Amino acid sequence: MGSRDREQDQELARALSPSPNWYCSRCSDTSPGGVLGFGAKNSIFLLGLSPSQPLALGELVGHTERVTGFTFCHHPGLPDTCASSSDDGTVKVWDTQTRTVLKEHTAHQSTITALHWSPLRKELVVSADEKGIVICWWYTKNDTHHFFPEPRNIFCLTCSPHNEEHVALGYKDGMIVIIDINRKGEVVHRLRGHDGEIHFLSWCPQLCEEGLLCRYENTSDGLNGELVKSDTARGSFLASGSKDQTIRVWNTTKGKGVLTLKLPSLKRRGGADVGTKERIWLTVHWPRGRPTQLVSSSFGGELLLWDLTKSGKQRWTLLGPSSEGQNHSRIVFNLSSVCLQDNRQLLLSTSMDRDVKCWDLTTLDCCWTQPTLGGFVYSLAFSPINVGSLAIGVGDGMIRVWDTLSLQSAYDIKTLWQGIKSKVTSLCWHPTKESSLAFGTDDGKVGIYEIYSNKPPQISSSYHRKTVYALAWGPPLPPLATGRDGDGPAASLYSCAGEGTILQHNPWKLSADAQDINCLIRETNGIKHKLPGHSELNWKPDGKVLAIGNDDGSIEIFQAPRLKLLCTIQTHHKLLNAIRWHHPHGTRPDLGYLLASGSNNAIIHIHNLKAVLENPPDSPVMLTEPYRTLPGHTAKITSLSWSPHRDAMLVSACYDGTAQVWDVLKEEPLCNYRGHIGRLLGVQWSPVDADSVWTGGDDFTVQQWEVSKQEHTRPPKGKKAFELDKRRVSLPKPKSKKARRKNEKGPTGQEGDECPETPSQCVPTAHNGGGGDPEEEEECREPVEMAKMSNGISRMPASLAELRLQERTDPLVHNFPPTATNQTPQLKKERPKEERRRERPEAPVKKKKGRSVLPLSTANDHRSKEELHSDCVNLAHILYSKESPGQSRPGSGEEIQLGLFVDRPALYRMFEEEGRNHLEAGHPEMCYQLLLWRGDVRGALEMASERGELNDTLVAMAPMAGYVVWMKTIEAFVKQLCFQEQYIKAATYLLSIHRVYEAVQLLRSHQLFREAIAIAKARLQPEDPVLKELFTCCAGVMEKDGHYTIAAKCYLTAESPYDAAKILARKGDVASLRTAAEVAAIVGERELSVSFSSRCAHDLLALRDWLGAQEVLQTQGSLLGQRLVLCTYELLYRSLADRDLTLWKSISAPCYHSWALRSGEPLINAVTAVWQSEFGIMAADMGRLKTAHSQLRMTEYPTASLNTPPRLLLLHLSQELSLAITSMLLSAWAEMVTFLLKALVRCLDSGNFTLMQEISKIVLPEAAADFVSDLEVQLTSADPLGLAALRSLRAYLCYGQVYELWWELAADRSGRSPAAVERAGTEERPEASRADEEENPEAGGPRPGQSVNLSGQADTTRPPLTAAARELLARCGCLLSPEHAQFQALARRTAGVQRAVAELVSQHQRGSSGGPGPETELGADSKMGPEMELGAGPEPETELGADSRLVPEMELGADSKLGSEMELGADSKLATGPEMELSQRPETGTRPEAEMGEGPKMEQETNSKLGTGPEAELVMGPEKELGMGPETEQETGSKLGPETELGTGPETEQETDSKLGTGPDKEPAENSITDHRSLELSLSGEETSCMATLMEQLRDITQQQSQLDESVKLHPFPDVVEASLVLLSIASLAPSVLPRELRDKALALARTHGTAAEYRRAVGKFLREAV
Fold first, then answer.
1. Is the Cβ–Cβ distance between 379 and 425 less than 8 Å?
2. 788-814 in b/e burial notation, b at 16+ Cβ within 10 A?
3. Are strands 621-623 and 564-569 parallel, antiparallel or unpaired?
4. How far does CA 52 lie from the centroid of its chain?
5. What does the pLDDT look like over 643-655, one tens digit per residue?
C-alpha cells in the first residue's frame, strides 16, 4: 500500500473488525510484505503485521455475500495483489493498495469452497466448488478452464510449489486427488486413507528425502508414526488434516502415504478431556523454510508444532507454553505464516473464539491478540470512574470491556459471556462503583456484571417481554428505600424495553420483583388515561429530574422522587431513540439544562428546560418549540453523545451510516464521519481525548476516529442511506433452520448426505459466544449446510446414481469448454388447465357407490353356494331346533352374517365386530353410526371424544344422552375445534351451552376481536367490564399493527377518548391532526385539542396554506393569540414577497386570505386593521385584547442562530411583532418598544442584515424618526428601562439606514451606474455563486453597488445627497454611546479571558492524559479550536444569513476611499481603493496570520495601510493620532504587518481576538493608551498565562461592569466601534455631510475602545454586510 493510503487509513485510530468467517479451508492469508488479510462477512479486512501489535489498514469491499476464500499472490513484484471467492459466485482479484477490483469471473455455478493462487504461475488462480468443478483462471487473459476430476464435494485445494501443473484437491469423503491441469485435469494420484472430510492441505515448502522423516514400527494402538515405506529419493510431500483427527503426510511423487499423526487428547480447562469428534477442524500449515516442522490445530483451540524427525508418542510441542491463556479457546480454522525483514517468522491463526493471534515460531509465544466482533455493535459506554474502560455490547452474545488507555496493548480487551446467551443491546456503568456494569439483552434480560471477578452476573428475576433498549442508574424511587440511612441502595437500575415499560430494579436484591414506574406516575399525577409506551429514559446528572421518551414522539420531564410531571415536550412525532442531558461541568452553568433528543424522523432537537426546572409549574406545561434544531441526517437517529470537553458540542449516530458532530448553539454541522459501511447504532465521545469519537454499527465494527481529520462537514443528502437500504434489500435473507432442513432433503423426501456436524453443534454455546442468530452467526454452519439453492432445486446431487447420470450427460466432463454452462434443469412447460380439460375425452358419468355399513356380513353372504346353504341349516337349528349345532355363536366370527336373522344380542355382536373392522380400516364414522343404531349415543360420543373425531352430527345427537353428556360433548368438541384452529365455530358451540365469557375470551386470545366484540355486545350487559377490557385490548393490537382509526374507535367505545385522540394523531399528517383535534374537542380534552390544532396549523403553514391554518384554529378560543400571529405572519410574508424578498418557498402555491394590503402602508397599520375586522381585536375591547396579549406572552421562542430555518425565523418575528402591536393597543409603550427591539435583534442574530433593514421599513411608518420621537413622548422619565429600550431601538434603526447610505455613497464614487455595477457583478461571478442564486431565486433586495434610497427601493439614477440623508447623519449621534462602547469592550475582554482559561484547561488535559497536542485540535475549519468562545457574552459580530447577497465583486467607485482625509493617526489615512473586489468568500475559520480568500497581503509602509483588495487601503489621516494600542505603535505611523490581513469568515474575529499580540513581527508597546487594550494583549503573554492572573483580570472586569448603569446592560446595542468606523468612512466619502462634532466623537470612541483586532474585524464585516 502506498504512503498516501496508509496515512489516510491511520486517520482511523483504532478499530475492531468483524470476526473471520468460519468453516472455510482458506479464508485468511499473509502477503510477503507483512499484511494479513481475512474474510469477514462480505469483506476482506487487512492488518499490517509486526511483532508488537497490528495496524488496521482498511478493508476490501465488493462481494455481496459471505467471503469463502482468500489468498495473496506470493510472486515478486505483486505484493499487493490478492484473490477472493464468495458465496455470491464470484472470484475477484484485488489491488490492496488502491483497494479496487482488477478482474473477476463468475464461471462457477455452485458454492465456491476452495481457492488458491499458484505459487509458480503468477497469473493463475485456481478455485473449486461443492459439485467438484475445478476452474483454472488466467486472470490477465481472463481465460478460464473447467475440470471435473471427481463427482464429489471439494473441501480444499492447494497448488504445488514444485510442479506448476499439479493441484491437490481434498474432498468431503476423505479422498485426496492430485490432478494435472495441463492434461485437462487428468488425475495423477488418488490418495486414500482419511475417513472424514479433508479440512486443509499443505505442501512441504521444499523437496525433501523421506529419510528426514523418522521411521519406526506401527503400534497396535495407532500411535503417531505410521511409516509406509522408506525411500531415499527426493520428492514432494503433502500434509493433510482431516476430521478423523489424523494428520497424514504423503509422498506425492510416488502417490503413497508416509506418516500418520494422531491428535493427542489434551486436558482442557476444568480437567475435562477433549477428544470427541463432534467439534473438530483440523488445519495444517507447513512453515516456509522448516521442512521438518508442521503446525496444526487441535480439538479445543490449541496449536501443535510437530517435529517430523522425532519418534515416540509425543512428537508435538504446544504453542504458548509460557502462559495458560495464550491459546485459542475454540477450534482454529486457518493458519498462515510470514517472514519479516528481521528474519522473525510469525504465525497467524484465526479461530471460532473470534480472536486473531500472532505467534513467534522461534519462541512459540503469542505476540499479540486482535479481538474481533461477531455481531451488531448495539451499545457503547465509557466508565465514569475508570474513564478509559469502554464497554461494548455485541450481538454475538458477549460484552467486550476495552481498556483504551492500556500501555501494554492497544487492544487490551476482556470478554464477558457467562449468563448472557443473547444479543447485548444496552449497557450502563454504575456511577460510583468502578466494576459494576449493567446490561440488557434482546430476550428481555437485565443483569449486573462485576467485571473484575470471574463470577457469573446477577440476573434480575423480572424479565421484559421484549428487547431492552435503554438502561440508566438513578436515585431510588418509592417504594424502594433510599440509601441515605444505609437501608437501601444509593442508586437503582432502570430498564426500558420494547413493550413500552420502565422497570426499577433493586441492585442489592435482583431476585425481588422489579417495580413498574408507571404505577408511581399514575398515582402522583392522577392520570387515568393510558400512558404512552416508553422507549428511552435518561436521568439528569444531579439525579433530580428524569426525562422519558415515548413511542409517540413525546418527551416527559418528571421531578424525583415522586415523579411529578413538570412538562411534556411535543416536538418529535415519531418514536424516541435517544435522549441525553448536557453535562453540568461546562463553562456556562445554564448549558446543564439542555436536553438533546433524536427520533425516527431524522431530526435532532435541543430543548432548554431552564425555566421549567428553576421554577417548576403547578400543572404540567406543554412545549412545542425546540430551543435548537439540527437537521441533516436522512434516517432515524440511534444515539447521541455530548462532548465532555467542549460546551454544547454534540455527536449523533444515524441509520444513514454516518456520525455527525454539531455546534448546538449555532445549529451548525461541524464534521461528518463516513467510515462505516452499515447503519450506526451507538456513539460515544472519548472522555480523555477531545478530538476522539467512538462509533459502532451493524457492520460488526467499532471504530475510533478523530474529529479534526474528517473531510466532510455535513451528512450526505440521502444518498448513503439510500445505498444502504438498497444493498440491504439486495442481499438474500438467511434461510430459517426449517427451510434449510427442507432444502437438504433429496427428491425422495429422505435426508441427503449425513452432515458431519448437526446445526445445533455448529451454533456457539454460552461459553463461546451465544445464540445462533442468523443475523450474526450465518458463518457458523457447516459447508454442507450452507449449500446454496437455485430455483428451489438443490445444487447438490442426492445420490451417486444421479451423479453418474450427470457425468454422462454433462458437457463439462468431456469437452472442457472455456466457460461454465448453466446446469439448471429445464422444466417441461405445462399447458393451461382449461386446454387440458378440453382435450380430455368425454366419459360416461358413473355414480360412485357408497361404502357399506356392514361389510363383513355382506361379504359372508357372497360366499359359495355350499357355504350359503350351510348358513341356512345353521340358522334353522338356531331358530327352530332346541339343539344348537356345537359352539354356534351367531353374529360373530364365521357366523357374523347370521346376526341379522337371530336375536338382538346376536345383532349387537355383529355391530361390535363390524365396528372394530371399521376402526381398523380407518372409517370410524361407520363405527359411530353403528353405535347410534344400537342406541348407544353416549358410547358413540365418548369414543369420538377420546379419538378427537367429533362432528356436527354427533354433537347434534348429544342431548339424547342427557344434559351431562351433552355438556361434556360440547366441551370436548370445543377443544377439538381449537386444536383444528376453528375458533369461531368453537365459540359458537360455547354459546350453545351459555358460556359467553369463555367464548369471548377464546376469540380475544386469538385476536379475533371483531367477532369477540360482536358476541359480547350481543350477549352481555352494556355495563359489563369485559366489554371495556375487550375494546382496550383490541385498540392496543390495532395500534401496534398501524390501524389507527380502528384503534381510535375502540378507545372511544372503551371510554378512553384521550387515547383515541392521541392515536388518531399518531400518523402526523394534516388530515389526521385535524381529525384528532376535532375528536379531542368533542370529548372535552381541550388541551389535547389545542395541541393538535396548533400542530396542524404549523404543518399547513409549512405549505403556505394560511387559509387552512386559520380554519383549523378558529374553533379554539384559547388559540386566539396564535391566530393573531398567523395573521401577522401572512401579512409580513406578503409584504416581503412584494419587495422581492422571499425567504422560503414550498412546493404548493401560497393560499392567502383576501385581506387588503395597500402599498406603502406600514405593517402595523395593516395588521391592526385586519385584527379589528376579522378577530375583533381593538383598543375598545380591553378584555379580549388582554386575553390575546396574555396568550401571546405564554409562548417564548429561543434566540435565533445562523442556522435557524427562514420559516421559523419569520414565525418568531411574527410573534414578537404581534406582541408589539397588542402592547401598543394596550398603551404599554415600554413593552412595545422592547418587542420591536427583539424583532430587529433576532434578524441580526440570524445573520440576516437585509431582513433587519426590510423589517424596519415595512413595520414602522415612513417617518420612522417621528414615530420613535412620538414613542419617546409616551415614555416618561419614570420608566428608565423603557427609555433604554427605545434608545437601543433608535440606534438599530439608524444602524441599518447608515449602512444603506454608505453603500449608496460607495456606488456613487465608483463612477459607474448601479445597473452596470449589478450587471458586471452578475457576469463575473463564479459558477458556484450563480448556482447558489439558482437554488435561492427568492433572494432579492438591493445588491452591492446598486444605489439604494432610504425607503429601500433601488434607484435607476444617482441623485446627490438629499436632505433626508443629511437629516439621517444628524441623528447618528444615537449610535455613538460611550456607555455602550465601554460595556461592549468589557464583554470582549470577558470573552478573551474565558478563551484563555479554556485554553489553559485544554493544555492541562492534554498534558495530563497524554493526548494529542494542539496540532490535533479541531482546526480552523471546524471552528472548535482553543480560540472558540466559551460562554462569551453577546456575539459582537453579525454574520450573513441565507438571504445575504454574496457577490464576487463590489466596486465602490473609480477612486473612492473609505476615508479620504480621515484623521485617524499621525501620517495615516483611511481609504479604500476604487476596485474593492471579493472574488469569493474565504473559508471560515482561517487564522489571521494566513491569507484570507484571494485578498493580497497588506502593505507595510511608513503610513500603515489596511488593505481590503488589490487597490483598497485604509489610510490614516495626518490630523489626529488614533490610539491603536500596543499592536500598532511601532514606528512613526502605526503599522499592521502582513500577518494582519483581513478575513471575511465569521470566525475571523474570534480567532483574531484570541491571537492578539502573538504575531511574529508584533511587539507590544510599553505604554498602552487604554487599560482594556493592554489587558487584551497581555492575555497571550507567557508572563500572565496563569489561572490566578486570569481570575484577577476577570474580577477587575466584573467590577467595572458593576459600575455601569443597569439600563446599559439590559438591552443589546449596535457595535459602537464598528458604527464609528462606518461614520468616519462616510465622512471620507462626503466630508461636508457628517457634522464635525459627530466625526470627532466617532474618532474618540474608535481611539478609546478600538484595537487593531477590532478594526480588522469591523472592516471584514463591512465587506460581508456590503454583499
1. yes
2. bbeeeebbbbbeeeebeebbeebebbe
3. parallel
4. 34
5. 999 999 999 999 9
